[in-house]
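Quick entry, no commentary yet.
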Amino acid sequence: MFAELRNISVYYNKSMAVENVTINVPEAGVVSIIGANGAGKSTILKSLLGIVHVREGEIVFDGDDISGLGTADRVKRGIVLVPEGRQLFPYLSVITNLKLGATVRRDKAGVAESMEYVLELFPRLKERLKQDAGTLSGGEQQMLAIGRGLMANPRLLCMDEPSVGLAPIIVEQVGEVIKDINSRGISVLLVEQNAHLALGVCRTGYVLEVGRVVMEGDRETIRCSEIVKRAYLGG
């Protein structure tokens, strides 16, 4: 597997957030983790990025154990997070926010190529390059957050609840954007409460409840599960 979280457990003080979780992401694949608020989805992404400490288990990326690496080194290897809530710099311009995504890069030609792709993917951003990020609509801010992530030249793009607060038509656009990103060979790990979005873009998925994986499989297996239908698909 391209990226593996092997039997990881994470605690916040003495409280268990994630217990004995294994997640596998194949190269050039899209994997979704579905779960309610507080299930531990964001903790899994933060573990992968080295933002939170893993008490047990290991994290392997492209054949190397990266459990001991700091966040900056993981980003340099190509693991990039589009965080929940976007976490943009609201008083800085769109173009500045995008450029900040490329901070770890030294390949000027590659950065220019990434910028070209981002503005092609999000033409609305191209129209608003000098506008402060905080003045954008919610959908535009989400596009900017994704664009900033792409500026880091990810090999694995981790997306934390990108649909939150967005109108259904914008959520649909986010799904198309994920497919476009993946078509370029970039692996995507998506965590979502919106099962329609998550299962619409992934090849395989996991269902997380109270810090534990309760189901995994291809998207049709998960979509047809009575548990998922009842809890997440309105069945």
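second:
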Amino acid sequence: MKKILVVAFVFLIAVSLVACSGTPAATEQPVAKEDLPPLEFTISMRDFNNPFVVGLPDINKEPNKVKLEELTNTKFDIRLIPNAQWVERMNVMFASGDIPDIVNAGSYLFGPELAGAIENDVFLPLNDLLKKHGPNLLKVVPKAAWDAVTYNGKIYAIPDYLNNPNRRAMNVRMDLVKKAGLGTPRTLDEYVQVLRAFKSMGVEQPFVMRANFKYSDTFFGAFDALPYQWEYYNGKVVPKFMAGNKGKEAVAFHRKLYEEGLIHKEFVTLTATDSTNAILAGKGGMWSMNGSDFIGREKEVKGNVPGAEVAIIPSPTGPDGKGGHFIYDPSIMAFYFNARTKVDVGRLIEFIDWQVTQEGKNFFTYGGDPAQYKAPANKKEEDEEGYRVGWLWMVKERDFNNPLAILREPSGPGLVKAFENILSKEGRDSIKFMLPLKALSANPDINPGVDTPPPIWMDGVARIIVGAAPIDYYDTIIQEWLKRGGQAAIDEATALYNSKSGQIYIPSGK
């Protein structure tokens, strides 16, 4: 799961692609059939606050969209769903029964926006249809991404995919590291040494943390104790925060950081905006964020802090010699097909299959012929290219929304190398459940988010870190979590693990 196929960037320059999959190879086949009328269909799509999309008076008249219709012999109506109303509007759509022919949603089959659609047979299984109408998709999309949208042996969607699902990166003000006469830190002790140097220089937040441990759980990763992940331990599937003593040790480490002033005294109340503003103003020494956002953040820091040098470095390694942030699912979004559609589903699949052919890649990447490509000359053209490559292109590799734009930047090649040489070699995987555990769903206080701890754990641990409770209070937190439904969740998770039912994802080697 951790491999990054750097050749995915090469095709953007040399117009070639190499990809791997657990499915047999297939040859490219043209989709548009001149002897057929254009295929008319509807598709719902989330706007993702894309500035180009939001600013359009009518998405269905946008020239790139119209050109896509010409190239694929289609005529489709995009139903935009505002990002802020995503789950609510999707739920209303399913409740009303007014469901478009293709539905764009998250790749998690049981996500809140799908409102039980899988269980209620709202979407078509695609296994046989893909074999006949999606040969290029079967060749290009990795097996892990197909597995993410498969339930009980049925493929329910066509997913996009990540070649490198480890996306979060450790960022550091390397100019300050050099000023301190230190090298790139690797171990926990070396990281603490750098943080102490930052503090001595007057850096306000040597390590930037924020509320809910969001994007600030780097050191929990070093201990392999990310508090929203699960593992098999002593014959049971348990949260990592209670597998042995590593959770308690990670909390003790954070308490030390707090006592030495290496994290902000009010970190439990700091918002995402607070932490971002601190970083941009030069008040942060190191922080975690998605690697794909590096260039934009680096530019802003440099613009505000003359001489600043930001770099991606390996995450701290812990007692087991490993480290890193949590590994994302192998797919971010997917496209589902209405089981009651009157449209030819084979041709609908062919519409998406075309998008991963060379002709499709040329259109979305370059706007057409690569030889005629011209880089954007202004903000409007940049936004249009970003829309075509990152939004209108429905199924693609999504390590970066627009690799062409990244490679135009001075730091672009370095970022690609960071993904290849750093992020691909670190990260913590977890046991995951296809269906939410019932015991957790019934008890919000003990239920973790995708990348946030359970509230009961979070509140108790924050008390320990700020010194309002002793380290041994951690044992009380665990007991309270178990008492409120955690034991039932462990029993449920362990039963799924032992059943080998296909309703549980088990990392390799676990």
